[in-house]
């Protein structure tokens, strides 16, 4: 569009700089408070960690210990990577099959996937967690399978859109040359789908990494916790929250995400735009 | 019509379609059907279901807390949808212009989206309780505090996301139309309301759709920020349903009935809203 310089361009830069500072302030505040003694956090959240209030890394050691943070981090990573890989592999194959076969079964399947996208999680929450329990899917590995099932809709939807834009003639000539069906898919179709595969990977990873209810309800929480579940556990039943440990865990949860964002920003933004076709 | 390659591919269903289909059946289709059936039953563990007809639905509608949660979610959704869309549109509009640092600003505004709902809830609990401490109050003092807290949190989280979608839309606006308007001497507000906004309708559809569904489905942030306090008055629909399942013994069937109603509501809202805004879309 019009990328001409607006009037008072410099003033706009100043204004947006101020808003940006306000935007990151909540995160900075958590960071500052993670070095304060817990009593000072609730008494005055805006004071700096100085004098008696400063406790160094004490909150971090306590937070890591009580939540077993690194274990949760590992499980979250395993669940996210495992689910995303499984989703990418299975749904891209399924989407290609749906588009190319295009018979009644394929159409029915596609309609079901579309339907899946508008159903809120609460609708299947109770029954899904019971089924996962019965089928012993209450491990991180089992959870990957559950994510494939519940998250298939959006991935299949995006991939079918992409496959529809790929001319079948390429695949047909490869078939005449005697290539097998799996080989055609992995050597011809997948490379063409690559940009959308990255986008879907980002979208699903953002969702699964941050998801709270599904892991909370299905995982065997005595053995496995994700980061979100571990942070929520800090709050406990009726007792008061250990705000010091909480702040430290929040920082530990946020830092890797921001690092990932800075590295993959371009792909993340593209992924969001791909996901926006949902409407 | 089925192509030659289609016939060959069809035979490979067990490799290509079956894994996703199997997971989909277990992870979605069966739980969904069972969920609909159980909403007409009295049960505690799924296996002891006993058919009771529409009783659960009747109890759901008589549950004052459910109706309150419905009102809470509706108000929250309306307010956040308006705030987020207006703010995201305005920011996107300015940031597509040649302003120094606009790439950095975009990155900053988008960042909160990557952080999970539980974490976001506690970040804002710290900040808002810190502010309210000046009046010796906290977020759980009154339901309206929790409501506006959630409005701030959700806006902060989603403005950047919608901004990205609006920027993409604005960058693909046809320049010739805008130039023609400038040549014809259209004023700034005429260009905005008669040309840009109508042409941006597809993006506006997508963003408001996302805001509305996100607003109703909101759970994690609600749980972390106030957990419904005081006395479940700052509780949204998703949270009320979850609490009915897991916090009230003997209410599982009612919880499932509420979940079905919730699904119908989300689906209807999505469809109506999609129809309304798509009908306003224009071609350049």
UniProtKB/TrEMBL annotation, chain A:
**Pfam families noted in UniProt:** BPD_transp_1
Any one Gene Ontology cellular component term annotated for this protein:
plasma membrane
Gene3D superfamilies, per the entry: MetI-like
- Give the bilayer topology: Multi-pass membrane protein
Return one Gene Ontology term, BP aspect.
transmembrane transport
- Tell me the keywords, alphabetical order: Cell membrane, Membrane, Transmembrane, Transmembrane helix, Transport
Q: Where in the cell is it found?
A: Cell membrane
Tell me where the transmembrane regions lie: 12-32, 75-99, 108-128, 140-163, 184-209, 243-264
Q: List residues of the ABC transmembrane type-1 domain.
A: 73-264
Q: Which family does it belong to?
A: Belongs to the binding-protein-dependent transport system permease family.
Please give the name of this protein: ABC transporter permease subunit
From TrEMBL, chain B:
Keywords, in A-Z order = Cell membrane, Membrane, Transmembrane, Transmembrane helix, Transport
Give the record's membrane topology. Answer: Multi-pass membrane protein
Q: Which SUPFAM superfamilies match?
A: MetI-like (SSF161098)
The name this protein goes by in its record = ABC transporter permease
- Please report the stretch or stretches of sequence annotated as the ABC transmembrane type-1 domain: 70-273
Q: What GO cellular-component annotations does this UniProt entry give? A: plasma membrane
Coiled coil regions, renumbered to chain: none
Localization, UniProt: Cell membrane
**InterPro entries named among the record's database cross-references:** MetI-like, MetI-like_sf, UgpAE/MalFG_permease
Q: What organism is this sequence from? A: Bifidobacterium ramosum
- Sequence intervals crossing the membrane: 12-38, 66-95, 107-127, 147-168, 253-272
The family this protein is said to belong to: Belongs to the binding-protein-dependent transport system permease family.
């Amino acid at each position: 569009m019009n990328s001409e310089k607006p009037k008072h361009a410099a003033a706009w830069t100043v204004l947006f700089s101020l808003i940006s500072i306000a935007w990151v302030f909540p995160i900075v505040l958590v960071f500052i408070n993670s070095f304060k003694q817990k009593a000072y956090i609730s008494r005055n959240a805006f004071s700096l960690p100085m004098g008696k209030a400063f406790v160094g890394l004490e909150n971090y050691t306590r937070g890591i210990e009580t939540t077993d943070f690194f274990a949760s981090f590992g499980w979250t990573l395993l669940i996210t990577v495992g689910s995303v890989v499984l989703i990418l592999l299975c749904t891209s194959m399924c989407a290609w099959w749906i588009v190319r076969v295009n018979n009644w079964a394929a159409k029915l399947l596609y309609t079901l996937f579309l339907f899946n996208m508008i159903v809120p999680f609460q609708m299947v929450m109770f029954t899904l967690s019971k089924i996962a329990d019965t089928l012993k899917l209450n491990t991180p590995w089992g959870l990957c399978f559950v994510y494939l099932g519940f998250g298939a809709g959006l991935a299949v939807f995006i991939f079918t859109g992409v496959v529809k834009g790929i001319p079948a003639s390429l695949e047909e000539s490869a078939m005449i040359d005697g290539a097998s069906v799996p080989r055609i898919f992995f050597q011809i179709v997948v490379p063409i789908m690559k940009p959308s595969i990255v986008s879907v990977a980002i979208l699903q990873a953002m969702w699964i990494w941050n998801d709270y209810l599904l892991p909370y309800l299905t995982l065997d929480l005595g053995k496995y916790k994700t980061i979100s579940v571990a942070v929520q556990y800090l709050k406990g039943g009726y007792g008061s929250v250990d705000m010091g440990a909480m702040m430290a865990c929040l920082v530990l949860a946020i830092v890797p995400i921001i690092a990932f964002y800075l590295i993959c920003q371009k792909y993340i933004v593209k992924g969001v735009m791909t996901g926006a076709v949902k409407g | 019509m089925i192509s030659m390659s289609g016939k060959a591919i069809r035979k490979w269903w067990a490799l290509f379609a079956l894994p996703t289909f199997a997971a989909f059946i277990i992870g979605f289709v069966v739980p969904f059907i069972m969920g609909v059936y159980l909403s007409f039953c009295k049960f505690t563990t799924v296996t002891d279901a006993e058919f009771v007809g529409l009783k659960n639905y009747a109890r759901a509608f008589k549950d004052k807390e459910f109706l309150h949660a419905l009102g809470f979610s509706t108000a929250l959704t309306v307010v956040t949808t308006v705030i987020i869309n207006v703010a995201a549109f305005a920011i996107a509009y300015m940031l597509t212009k040649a302003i120094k640092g606009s790439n950095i600003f975009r990155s900053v505004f988008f960042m909160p989206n990557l952080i999970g709902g539980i974490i976001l809830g506690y970040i804002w609990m710290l900040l808002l309780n810190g502010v309210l401490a000046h009046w010796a109050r906290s977020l759980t003092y009154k339901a309206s505090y929790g409501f506006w807290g959630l409005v701030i949190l959700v806006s902060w989280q989603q403005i950047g996301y919608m901004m990205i979608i609006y920027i993409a839309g604005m960058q693909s606006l046809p320049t010739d139309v805008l130039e023609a308007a400038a040549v014809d001497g259209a004023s700034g507000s005429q260009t905005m309301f008669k040309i840009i906004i109508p042409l941006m309708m597809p993006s506006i559809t997508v963003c408001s759709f996302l805001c509305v569904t996100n607003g109703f489905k909101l759970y994690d942030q609600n749980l972390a920020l106030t957990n419904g306090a005081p006395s479940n008055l700052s509780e949204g629909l998703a949270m009320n349903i979850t609490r009915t399942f897991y916090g009230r013994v003997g209410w599982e069937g009612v919880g499932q009935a509420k979940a079905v109603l919730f699904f119908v509501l989300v689906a209807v809202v999505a469809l109506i809203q999609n129809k309304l805004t798509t009908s306003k879309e224009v071609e350049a």
